[in-house]
Design a protein that fits this description.
The protein has helices at about 20-30, 40-55, 70-80, 105-110, 110-135, 160-180, 195-200, 205-215, 225-235; strands spanning about 10, 35-40, 60-65, 85-90, 135-145, 185-190, 245-250. Helix 1 crosses helix 9 (about 225-235) and helix 5 (about 110-135) packs parallel to helix 6. The chain has one domain: Rossmann fold, CATH 3.40.50.720. The chain contains nine helices and seven strands; from the N terminus they run E-H-E-H-E-H-E-H-H-E-H-E-H-H-H-E. About 45% of the residues are buried. It is of the alpha/beta class and about 270 residues long. The chain is about 40% helix and about 15% strand. Strand 2 (about 35-40), helix 2 and strand 3 (about 60-65) form a beta-alpha-beta unit. The chain binds nicotinamide-adenine-dinucleotide. Nicotinamide-adenine-dinucleotide (NAD) binds near residues 16 and 66.
């Protein structure tokens, strides 16, 4: 029997086969979870459908634009219709900032409007989903989001996504503190860089990938399958004592003080 047998999970954020959410869906399905999927807009529906068919969730594919409260409410209603007894897991794998803010210097690129959009879509939406689905989450449930090291270190050209991820990580702690009384856990995975559509929007992304590959203790980048396996563990009963955590799945990169050859033993 898999780690997630009998669990029902909503997976958000699939945009392609390379999406981190795709790796999480495949890993959770392999661990026995029953899945539902949400997708941002019609353009992405067929991509989600392909993943859903591979992971037994083809009957539960629901549109949701997290910028829109009515769309989030409609998602909650559709899930209640599919699963009247409730659900156990919500995977929030959503991030966005206007592309022009992910190039050049931070102060040079940041704008009031872009800052608000990045925080709305990348951080507030996690709380918004939890607010909307709270009444449907069963005891023993788990919420999970995806962060990045740029939340706590200044990473060139990650720019406004840094403050947005810092806010997302604070959301993990505030939500964990509040939902613990309902036996619902809230955690994040801070993933190393992975080539996805969202990542392609960051001007300095190639540098992030090669720095991690050269310097990380494991000497390589991580895969979406590795993030998926860690996500399955964090949302399973094996992690029943873990909440409010940021778990690094980054081949160990975040532990380094000096980045480069000098960090490796001769
Ligand atoms: P991706 O492009 O495959 O996924 C991003 C998803 O966000 C897409 O499915 C997109 O539809 C969704 N999204 C954006 N705006 C939305 C909206 N208004 N409503 C609903 N959905 C919306 O890229 P990914 O790298 O898999 O990103 C998933 C998460 O992982 C993001 O939070 C990202 O910041 C985080 N992350 C990515 C990396 C990386 O290197 N790829 C590293 C650490 C963390």
């Amino acid at each position: 029997m898999g780690l997630l047998a009998g669990k029902r999970a909503l997976i958000t954020g699939i945009a392609s086969d390379r999406s981190i959410a795709t790796g999480i869906a495949e890993a959770m399905a392999a661990q026995g979870a029953e899945l539902a999927f949400s997708y941002q807009g019609d353009k992405l529906k067929s991509r989600v459908q392909a993943v859903a068919e591979r992971s037994n969730g083809a009957d539960r594919i629901i549109p949701c634009d997290v910028a829109d409260d009515a769309s989030i409410a409609a998602l909650a209603q559709s899930l209640a219709d599919c699963w009247p007894e409730g659900l156990d897991i919500v995977v929030h794998s959503i991030g966005y900032a206007p592309r022009e803010l992910l190039a050049g210097g931070y102060l040079e690129s940041v704008t009031r409007e872009g800052y608000a959009i990045a925080h709305d879509i990348s951080a507030y939406s996690f709380a918004a989903l939890a607010k909307a689905l709270r009444g449907q989450l069963r005891a023993g449930g788990a919420l999970l989001t995806l962060s990045y090291l740029g939340a706590e270190r200044a990473v060139p050209m990650y720019n406004v996504m840094g403050p947005a991820k810092a806010s997302l990580e604070a959301n993990v702690r505030y939500m964990a503190a509040e939902l613990g009384a309902e036996d619902i856990r809230v955690n994040a995975i801070s993933a190393g860089p992975i080539k996805t559509l969202a990542a392609a929007g960051i001007k300095g992304f190639r540098g992030m990938l090669s720095s991690a590959e050269q310097a990380s203790p494991l000497g390589r980048n991580v895969s979406t399958a590795e993030v998926g396996n860690a996500a399955s563990f964090l949302c399973s009963p094996l992690a029943s004592g873990i909440t409010g955590q940021i778990l690094y799945v980054d081949a160990g990169y975040h532990i380094l003080g000096l980045i480069g050859e000098t960090t490796k033993a001769d």
